[in-house]
Structures are given as structure tokens and as C-alpha cells.
Specification:
Oligomer: heterodimer
CATH class of the largest domain in chain B: Mainly Alpha
Shape of chain A: elongated
Number of strands of chain A: 20
Distance between the termini of chain A: 32 Å
Strand content of chain A: 25-35%
CATH superfamily of the largest domain in chain B: MetI-like
Order of helices and strands of chain B: HHHHHHHHHHHH
CATH class of the largest domain in chain A: Alpha Beta
Order of helices and strands of chain A: EHEEHEEEHHHEHEHEEHHEEEEEEEEEE
Number of domains of chain A: 2
Helix content of chain B: over 70%
Largest sheet of chain B: none
Distance between the termini of chain B: 57 Å
Number of domains of chain B: 2
Shape of chain B: globular
Largest interface: A-B, 26 and 18 residues
Strand content of chain B: under 5%
Number of helices of chain A: 9
Largest sheet of chain A: 6 strands, mixed
CATH architecture of the largest domain in chain B: Orthogonal Bundle
CATH architecture of the largest domain in chain A: 3-Layer(aba) Sandwich
Number of strands of chain B: 0
Chain lengths: ~400, ~280
């Protein structure tokens, strides 16, 4: 068991009707700016030493507020923050062994790159020769040697991002907090920096807590992810667990695309746990998914797990099957996205790699009857739809 | 369609060359005229500082002389008036800039009861006509001025100048502070700087241009203020009051000398700040 770097105990932040509250409220669904609202709602969380940990969620889910409380910029309404076993809840930012990479980098515009990076060491009265050595080392690490004398206005966004990272890492903090640090970069640079960040994290071995609304970004870099929604996290796990076995409707919809079909518990099918879909067909699921007292659920399966088979062909043994009609096909290059209508009209999305059917003429055509087949192991179960709003993934980056 | 395009091709070429002509000459001429309009009064002041008038009236050109430049304070009372003005301007600038900067910091950075009304009240001295402000101040100083308190003096001028200068300083510094990214101060604290160090290493250097601008504004407002000063001066005479006083019997050319000097010093300071800014931008 690894050591715990950060422990949050019942951490809660309620914003009042003050200026900060009003600013945050505009990103929070249903929040009333004048009466206050819960931005972070009794979170318990442990982040392990040396881990790349992500807080993932839409704008207004409380992820940035959580990060700012760990950094010491917001004071919690309730609860406790421990850093390497020490309670730091009420310590100011400058007495905590954490550093932050801000969303807009927050480089000091009046100082050179060198002085920006040296800022933390100067506060600790480190000797000049030592500062020089470590600053140059750091700029080497973030691949910006030779930029010491530039001002922040004279470097690009991607370079500013690296300087911000160097400025934080040079202090060798116990934990590095990153608040959507790649949000302002273009897609190509962002992808490149994702790989870079992971490399740097491995190299320095410091715990990273990374806030993002971009599920792909979180999946690429993180050891573990907490998916946050409405001030709490809905599920915590490694990227694979979150993707393959989402536990809530929100997680299933926020990470990737999911087909969620209303289903009811059915008689066991040849001794296996089973659900009945709305179109009447019965599907097998792993035994662990049947919970007592939960009859009506949504059955989930990822689009790329489903294979499309001609109606007259055999479905491989042990696979679930459901018949339908192709209603739409979009060629995406790598794959083709099909929308299949079940007999009762509900729609299922299917991704098929363009391997066996690579040319346009070979693709499934609209109106064609097909059979969908998928392994019971690829099923997951979340709560049934109850009119709760779906998370929107593409909300603008904001305070969150 | 092609025929139209062919004839149209000539027309843009012509209009482009006309535009270029406009850009090169008309705009330039306009700028020269505008600057000349602004500069003419100052040229007249400088010109008559080297005039050798007959008697006390310095309104008609007669002959060139450097006498007044060699004895700029050769008129009784002028030196004291200029010295008083400079003292009041320096002190009121210093005090108003300090207090105004602190007020601006409080108004932008903190929420407190009455912040809204303070924000509004700060505008009042700027919005109130000077004549009203001066008269009110006179009433106040006189009503509480029974000996030994507040006799009208250089001190009451100073109080009045600090009062109206604070408003201008607050407004100028507040604009600079509002544009300052809050994250910068958080970043400094994050990197181990306490509140004091954060202020001096990050906040202050970043709002310094605003503070300097505010101080320059305050100084120039103070040194040429006449209306409010006249009400609150008592028997003290400042430079503008000296000019007003001598106007009835003819303004001595030395006043032109001092005026030209103030202008030259101001231009020198601006030039210096431009050079300084260029150098720091290059570094």
C-alpha cells in the first residue's frame, strides 16, 4: 500500500452570495448566486504518493474548487485536508508543500523566464549558485534551455505552459496541482504536452493532481480518475475500469459513448443472469451485475463492442444478440458509425472498424436488416433514466 | 462579367493610389495642424519670455533679451509663490498617491460593508464644480477655524489638494488593479511568498505604472489649481495666484520664464520615461 499524499476528509465548500460565489455560480447548473450553493459536497478522497490523479468533470462540478482548497486559495466550509499525514486545512498557500500550475499559467509578466522559475527558490533564500544550477536544470527538463532572458510576453502559449510547469516543479513539492493546464493550447500541441506531462511526472516522481473536463486527456495520462458531478465524485478508478465498467449513467455518458437501453431483470438464461430489453429480447450479463432490489435498470454496452452480422449467419456461441435495422451510416475513416434501430424503435450506436468492409460499396446500407452480437462481459448496468439531465461534454472551459 | 471586371480592375488601382496620397500627405498635414494648434500657446509663452517689453505690459513684441532668463525670480514675491506651489504639489502628490493607492487596493481586493458607496463617493470631488468645492471648503475651514484651529494657510491648501487628488489617484490606480490577474498574486503565494512579499514582488511592480501615472496627474492638478486654492489660501500666495494677482498690473516676463521651464521639465520627464520604458522592454 502506497503512502497517502493527499487525504480529503468530508471536504465541503459552500459559496455564499458574495462576489466569488456569484462568479462560481454562473458555471453551476441550478445554483442560485444570491443564496449560496454547495460547490463541493462532503468529499472523501485519498491520493497516493507518486500517482497521476485526475479530477474529471463538466464545468461547475466542483473540481477546480476542490483543487483550490488543496492549494489553499479557498477555505473549506467543512472538512479537512491532510498533506502527507499533516492537517493543512487552515494553512495559507505559502505554508503548504504544494505548487500549482494555473489554467492561464499566471507567469509574472514583469520578470524574465529565469526569474519566474527562480521565484520559489528565492523566497526560500537558496544561494544564487544553487538557484542558477536548478533553474537551468529545470529549463532543460521542460525543453526550454536558452530562454532564460525572455519575458513571458515573448514566448508562445506552449512555452509559457512549460515555464509554468518548471516554476512549480523546481520547488520539489509533495504534490503538484494542475488546473486545466492544456486548455488554452491547440489540439496538436495539447496531445504533445499530454505525453510530455506524463514523461515529466514519471521523471520527477511527484504526485500530480490534474483537473480537466477532457475525458480523453484524463484517460491518456492518469493512473486514477475521479469523475465528478454536482460537487461529488460518482466513480473513482483507473481509466480502464471507468470505461469498461461505469457505475452510473453520468460516468457512462461522460467517458466515451454508451448505448443505454432500458432493461428489467429477467429469469436466468441457461443458468446465467439475464435482463430483458424493451424490444423483448433477453440478454446475458455477468452474474455480479444483478443487484437485489434493482429490477429496472439501464443496460449499457459500448458501440465498438458490438459486431454486426448478417441475419442469416450464426451468432457465435455465448454472445448476446439483438435484431435491428440500419437507419444511418457515417463513414469516419478509421471506423464507420452505424445507428441501428431495434424493433421497438430504440436506437443503438455501433462502431465498426473499417477492416473487413473497407470500401464504401461494402458498408452496411441504410434499411438493411442486421443482427447485433456482443459478449455478455461487455455489458454494464447503470441506474434507469429518471429525467435527470445528461451531462454536456462540450461546455466551455471555465471555473468548474 | 469579365468585361466589368476588366474595367473595374483599373478603378481600384486608381483609388489605391489616391488612398496612398491621402495617407502620405493629407493625414500628415492634419497631424501637423493639430499639433500646431496645441503648441501655439506654449510657443507664445516661450517667445514672450525673451521679449524686452516697455513698462509692465508684456503683450507686444519689442526686442530680444535674455535678462529674464538670467534672473527668473527677479520679481518680488515670485520665488515664494513658486516655492509654495512646489511644496504643496509635492506633499499633496505624495500623500494623495499613498492614500489613494491603498484605497484602490481595498476597493478592488476586498469586499466590505460600504464598499459600493465608497466607490461612488470617490467620484464626487471630481464631479463637483471646483468653485462649489472651494466655497464649501472655505466655509468649513472658517467655521472650525476659530483660533487656534485651522487658520487659512498653506496647510489648508494642502488639505484641499490632497482631498481632490485622492479621487484621481483612486480612479487611476483602480483601473490598473482591475486589469491585474488575481492568479498572479495567488501564484506568488503558491510559490512561498507571504502577503507582504507578494505585494512588493508582484502586486506593486505590476501596478507601478498606474501609480506613477496617478502621481503625475496629481502633481499637475495641484500645481496649477487656482479656484480651490484661492478659496483656501488665506494670505498664502501660490504660483497661479501670483499670476492672477499680477495680471491686473501686467504680467512680468519672468512668469513666462517659469512657465516655459515647467513645460520643459515636463517634456524632459516624459522623454525620460519613454526611454526608460523602451530600455526595460528590450531587457
Amino acid at each position: 500500500m502506497a503512502d497517502v499524499a493527499v487525504r480529503l476528509v468530508q471536504l465541503t465548500k459552500r459559496f455564499g452570495g458574495d462576489a466569488t460565489g456569484r462568479r462560481v455560480a454562473q458555471y453551476v447548473e441550478g445554483a442560485n448566486p444570491s443564496s449560496g450553493f454547495l460547490a463541493v459536497d462532503h468529499i472523501d478522497l485519498e491520493v497516493n504518493d507518486g500517482e497521476f490523479f485526475s479530477l474529471l468533470g463538466p464545468s461547475g462540478c466542483g473540481k477546480t474548487t476542490t483543487l483550490r482548497m488543496i492549494g489553499g486559495f479557498e477555505q473549506p466550509t467543512e472538512g479537512r485536508i491532510e498533506l502527507q499525514g499533516v492537517d493543512v486545512t487552515w494553512l495559507p498557500p505559502y505554508r503548504r508543500n504544494v505548487n500549482t500550475v494555473f489554467q492561464n499559467y499566471a507567469l509574472f509578466p514583469h520578470l524574465t523566464v529565469y526569474e519566474n522559475v527562480a521565484f520559489g527558490l528565492r523566497r526560500r533564500k537558496v544561494a544564487d549558485s544553487e538557484i542558477r544550477k536548478r533553474v537551468l536544470e529545470m529549463l532543460e527538463l521542460v525543453e526550454l534551455p536558452g530562454y532564460e532572458r525572455r519575458k513571458p510576453s515573448q514566448i508562445s502559449g506552449g512555452q509559457a505552459q512549460r515555464v509554468a510547469l518548471a516554476r512549480a516543479l523546481i520547488n520539489r513539492p509533495a504534490v503538484l496541482l494542475l488546473d486545466e493546464p492544456l486548455g488554452a493550447l491547440d489540439l496538436k500541441l495539447r496531445k504533445q504536452m499530454q505525453v510530455e506531462l506524463k514523461r515529466i511526472q514519471k521523471e520527477v516522481g511527484i504526485t500530480f493532481i490534474y483537473v480537466t473536463h477532457d475525458q480523453e486527456e484524463a484517460m491518456t495520462m492518469s493512473d486514477r480518475i475521479a469523475v465528478m458531478n454536482r460537487g461529488r465524485y460518482e466513480q473513482l478508478g483507473d481509466p480502464e475500469a471507468l470505461y469498461e465498467r461505469p457505475e452510473t449513467r453520468f460516468v457512462a455518458g461522460f467517458l466515451g459513448v454508451s448505448n443505454l437501453l432500458p432493461a428489467t431483470a429477467a429469469e436466468s438464461l441457461n443458468g446465467h443472469a439475464a435482463f430483458r430489453l424493451s424490444d423483448g429480447s433477453t440478454v446475458r450479463v455477468p452474474a455480479g451485475l444483478i443487484e437485489t432490489g434493482r429490477n429496472a435498470v439501464s443496460l449499457g454496452v459500448r458501440p465498438e463492442k458490438i459486431r454486426l452480422i448478417e441475419v442469416d449467419k450464426e451468432v457465435p456461441a455465448g454472445m448476446n444478440r439483438a435484431a435491428g435495422t440500419i437507419v444511418d451510416a457515417s463513414y469516419l475513416g478509421v471506423s464507420t458509425q452505424y445507428i441501428v434501430a431495434l424493433r421497438d424503435g430504440s436506437r443503438v450506436t455501433v462502431y465498426e472498424q473499417n477492416v473487413e468492409r473497407a470500401t464504401k460499396a461494402e458498408l452496411w446500407a441504410r434499411g438493411e436488416e442486421v443482427v447485433m452480437a456482443w459478449s455478455p462481459d461487455h455489458c454494464f448496468v447503470v441506474e434507469e433514466e429518471n429525467g435527470a439531465t445528461e451531462p454536456s461534454v462540450d461546455e466551455s472551459v471555465a471555473v468548474a | 462579367m469579365t468585361a466589368v471586371a476588366a474595367t473595374a480592375a483599373k478603378a481600384p488601382a486608381l483609388s489605391v493610389s489616391v488612398r496612398r496620397l491621402l495617407d502620405r500627405y493629407v493625414l500628415r498635414l492634419y497631424v501637423i495642424l493639430a499639433v500646431a494648434y496645441l503648441m501655439l500657446p506654449i510657443v507664445v509663452i516661450a517667445l514672450f519670455s525673451v521679449n524686452d517689453p516697455i513698462g509692465r505690459s508684456n503683450f507686444a513684441w519689442r526686442a530680444f533679451t535674455l535678462d529674464h532668463w538670467l534672473s527668473p525670480f527677479g520679481v518680488p514675491g515670485l520665488f515664494d509663490a513658486v516655492a509654495t506651489s512646489l511644496r504643496v504639489a509635492f506633499l499633496s502628490t505624495l500623500i494623495a498617491t499613498t492614500l489613494g493607492t491603498l484605497i484602490a487596493l481595498a476597493l478592488v481586493r476586498y469586499q466590505f460593508r460600504g464598499a459600493g458607496s465608497a466607490n461612488l463617493l470617490i467620484f464626487l470631488p471630481m464631479a463637483t464644480p471646483e468653485i462649489v468645492l472651494g466655497a464649501s471648503l472655505l466655509t468649513m475651514f472658517v467655521s472650525i477655524g476659530e483660533p487656534p484651529f485651522f487658520p487659512l494657510s498653506e496647510f489648508t491648501i494642502l488639505i484641499a489638494h490632497i482631498m481632490f487628488n485622492i479621487s484621481f489617484v483612486v480612479v487611476t490606480v483602480r483601473a490598473r488593479l482591475a486589469g491585474l490577474d488575481r492568479n498572479l498574486e495567488e501564484a506568488a503565494m503558491d510559490l512561498g511568498a507571504n502577503e507582504w512579499t507578494t505585494f512588493w514582488k508582484v502586486t506593486f511592480p505590476l501596478i507601478l505604472p498606474g501609480i506613477v501615472a496617478a502621481a503625475l496627474l496629481a502633481f499637475s492638478l495641484s500645481i496649477d489649481d487656482f479656484v480651490i486654492t484661492n478659496f483656501t489660501a488665506g494670505r498664502t500666495v501660490t504660483f497661479p495666484m501670483f499670476i492672477w494677482g499680477s495680471y491686473r498690473i501686467g504680467i512680468p516676463p519672468q512668469v513666462n520664464v517659469i512657465g516655459t521651464l515647467i513645460f520643459l521639465i515636463a517634456v524632459g520627464l516624459v522623454a525620460l520615461s519613454v526611454v526608460f520604458q523602451r530600455r526595460s522592454a528590450r531587457a
